Amino acid sequence: MDSQPGFQLPPLAAVRVFEAAARHLSFTRAAEELGMTQAAVSYQMKLLEERLGAPLFRRDGRRVALTEAGARAAPPGRTRPVTDQPAARNASAALEPSRPAAPSTRMCGLMIVGNRHAAESRP
Q1: pTM score of the predicted model
Q2: Domain residue spans of the chain
């Protein structure tokens, strides 16, 4: 399926947590929605980011914001736009909120983000 040996799909639980965290832009609100602790959400995001090899959120104290990679991976039209960086605004605009993507398309987006980062970081 994938041309890079050793790459595995991210755990579905982590993808589900990412979707909620991206939608709320809050690990605490995502945790409340999913019936988890905030620490469990944070841990799932750490695992997902490690698996993909790219940060999905910028953490600033108790606040989180999507990175460009996070904005590309998030379901379209279901997240608040990231407006503090031009690249993030462009990535958010490219999500086409008028046309929702199928979950499998978003999963492919997560895989692509991880694959691109892995390819860029190889010597």
Answers
A1: 0.61
A2: 12-116
